[in-house]
Amino acid sequence: MHGILRTPGLAPALFIVFSGWVSLCWSTAASAHEQNFPVIEQISFALDCMEKNGGQNIETLYTCSCRIESLNQSMDFGDYEEAKIYKRFAQMPGERGGLFRESKGGDVKRKALDEVLANVERACPLVKRR
């Protein structure tokens, strides 16, 4: 459960933020840049990002929501999912993983994802309060 319930006071704040996020995603669907990442994927990405960057606090919430928005604007969700699959399965040992490691198309997709993620991290650095 990503530790939300173990952080006093943060669960209601996250609920409010993510509720607003869902409303924003729905209200901006008709805008010039259509949101193509499903809301559940955006929330999952943000929670995983927060966990990797120091836990659930306001700094990581802002950073990780910035990152998913930047990723959403930089890459189509279908391309993101394909690249994620190639990246994950390339780590499997043996022949099965070899199919994903040796795929030229998979290499292109993994490199594109790595480049986009690096750009997203540069665009949305983790800022800590003093």
What do you see in this structure?
By secondary structure, this protein is mostly helical. The chain contains 6 helices and no strands. The chain has helices spanning 10-27, 39-52, 58-74, 77-89, 94-101, 104-123. Helix 2 packs across helix 3 (58-74), helix 3 packs across helix 6 (104-123) and helix 4 (77-89) crosses helix 6. The two termini are 28 Å apart. Mean pLDDT is 79; it is low at 25-33.
List keywords for this structure.
about 130 residues; mainly alpha; 2 domains; elongated
Rg calc: 16 Å
Structure classification: mainly alpha
**Beta-strand fraction estimate:** under 5%
Shape: elongated
Distance between the termini: 28 Å
Low-confidence stretches: 25-33
Largest sheet: none
Number of strands: 0
What is the string of SSEs from the N terminus onward? HHHHHH
How would you state the average pLDDT, rounded? 79
- Quickly count the helices: 6
Q: Helix amount, in percent? A: 55-70%
Count of discrete structural domains: 2
